[in-house]
Structure formats: structure tokens, C-alpha cells
């Protein structure tokens, strides 16, 4: 076996482990509360379909990022724990198979696993910390912060490791290329998810449609980064 084939085999094995782990965790969650709020679930799925169609491309790492975090975290605190990885999976499917996408690749297979896996681990963290009672209130705060941190770290570290294995570059430098920006976006999504929860409790589930509006700053931040990388790639004029 050549070194190139061995390298490709390692990447394929890594992606397979991530995808299988995501499937295994999805099977662990009983769908006990999904039927209690079908309108909220439907609206969240519609929103991630819309945003999944509009991923932001990070040219330096050759990856695409969709603004799904807000609705994954909203599903986590508003619905059954299974809702978070389910919403994540639907959003990623739209990002991978949306109009104008490239043919299915090992990267697409990785994306289909890593985001639901991150959401599943976040949901497990949230449930373990909050206990069996799923009442809304102030006691959501610490479990939600911890779940958001798990979601962010698992998602970004696994993604950086995949890029490092593919490109044979330094893991930390790759993570620094998108981790801090993604961290700001995820933190903002957590705060906005709390706001949406308060509004839904007060005014009903259709307030979730505001999510498209409040996602604009996150999308705008990503588009600015994308535009900046395109400008750098075009090169500056020499003197």
C-alpha cells in the first residue's frame, strides 16, 4: 500500500468513526417530547432548511459553514433532546445537497456526521446537568452554557482534525483559522436562543420566524469573512 493510499484510508476511517458515532448517539435518544410541540419542530426544520441552503465558504480551509447553531440550540432548550441532532442533521443535509453543490465527497460525508454528533453530545450534557425535569427557567443557564461549549469544541476540533489529516498541516493553526470566529458566532447563537425561548413562551411558536431576521448578523459576519478571504486570494497590487 502506498503512503497516499494509507493516508486516504486513515481519513476514510476517521470519517466513518464520526458518522457511526453520530448514528449511535441518535439511536440513544427516546423521542418523548417531539410530538408535544409539532409546530415549533416544524418551524425549526423550515428555518434550518432555508439557512442550510446558504452556507459560508472559508476559502483558506476549503470548508463551508452554515448558520445553523441558533436553531440547533433553540431545539435543545425548547424541545426533546433528540430535536437538536435531528435539526442539525436536516440542516446539514440541505447544506450538502443544496442547489449548486459539488458531487458528494468524503467532506460531505464528514459534515453529515460531525454536526449531529456535536449536537447529540451537547444534548447529553444538557440533560445530565439539568436532570430529568425539563422545566424552563433560570436553571437552564449553566447547563446551556456547558452544552454550547461542548457543541462548539466537538464541532470545531473534529473539523480541524479532519482538515489537518487531509492537508498535513498543524492542527492548532487550522483551528485558529476558524475556531475563534465560530466561537463568537456560537456564543451569539446561544444568547439569541435564550431570547427566542422567552419570546416563544410569551407570544407563541411563530415568533421563531424572527430567527431568520436575527440570523442576518451571523450570516453577514460570515459573508464579510468570505469576502475578505476572496480579496486576499486575489492579491494586493505591488509597488
Question: Which SSEs are present, and which pair or pack?
Answer:
Layout: H1 3-28, H2 38-52, E1 56-58, E2 63-65, H3 69-78, H4 83-97, H5 106-130, H6 141-167, H7 171-203, H8 210-214, H9 216-234
Antiparallel strand pairs: 1-2
Helix pairs in contact: 1-5, 2-3, 2-4, 3-4, 3-7, 4-5, 5-6, 6-7
Mean pLDDT: 80
The low-pLDDT segments are none
Apparent shape: globular
Q: Please tally the β strands and state the result.
A: 2
The biggest beta sheet reads: 2 strands, antiparallel
Helix proportion range: over 70%
What report would you give on this structure?
This protein has 9 helices and 2 strands. Helices cover 73% and strands 3% of the residues. The protein is globular and about 55 Å long. By secondary structure, the chain is an all-alpha fold. The chain has a two-stranded antiparallel sheet.
Short description:
The protein has 239 residues and is mainly α. It has helices at 3-28, 38-52, 69-78, 83-97, 106-130, 141-167, 171-203, 210-214, 216-234; strands spanning 56-58, 63-65.
Question: Can you give keywords for this protein?
Answer:
Arp2/3 complex 21 kDa subunit ARPC3, 9 helices, 239 residues, two-stranded antiparallel ribbon, single chain, mainly alpha
Amino acid at each position: 500500500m502506498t503512503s497516499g493510499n494509507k493516508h486516504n484510508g486513515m481519513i476514510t476511517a476517521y470519517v466513518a468513526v464520526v458518522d457511526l458515532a453520530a448514528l449511535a448517539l441518535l439511536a440513544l435518544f427516546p423521542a418523548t417530547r417531539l410530538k408535544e410541540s409539532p409546530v415549533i419542530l416544524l418551524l425549526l426544520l423550515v428555518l434550518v432548511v432555508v439557512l442550510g441552503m446558504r452556507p459560508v465558504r472559508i476559502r483558506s480551509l476549503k470548508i463551508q459553514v452554515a448558520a445553523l447553531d441558533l436553531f440547533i440550540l433553540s431545539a435543545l432548550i425548547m424541545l426533546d433532546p433528540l430535536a437538536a441532532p435531528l435539526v442539525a442533521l436536516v440542516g446539514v443535509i440541505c447544506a450538502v445537497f443544496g442547489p449548486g453543490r459539488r458531487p458528494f465527497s468524503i467532506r460531505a460525508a464528514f459534515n453529515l456526521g460531525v454536526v449531529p454528533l456535536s449536537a447529540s453530545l451537547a444534548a447529553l450534557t444538557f440533560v445530565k446537568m439539568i436532570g430529568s425535569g425539563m422545566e424552563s427557567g433560570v436553571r437552564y443557564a449553566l447547563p446551556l452554557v456547558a452544552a454550547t461549549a461542548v457543541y462548539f469544541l466537538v464541532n470545531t476540533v473534529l473539523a480541524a482534525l479532519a482538515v489537518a489529516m487531509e492537508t498535513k498541516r498543524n492542527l492548532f493553526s487550522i483551528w485558529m483559522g476558524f475556531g475563534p470566529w465560530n466561537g463568537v458566532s456560537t456564543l451569539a447563537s446561544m444568547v439569541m436562543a435564550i431570547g427566542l425561548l422567552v419570546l416563544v413562551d410569551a407570544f407563541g411558536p411563530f415568533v421563531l420566524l424572527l430567527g431568520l431576521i436575527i440570523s442576518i448578523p451571523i450570516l453577514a459576519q460570515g459573508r464579510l469573512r468570505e469576502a475578505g478571504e476572496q480579496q486576499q486570494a486575489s492579491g494586493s497590487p505591488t509597488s
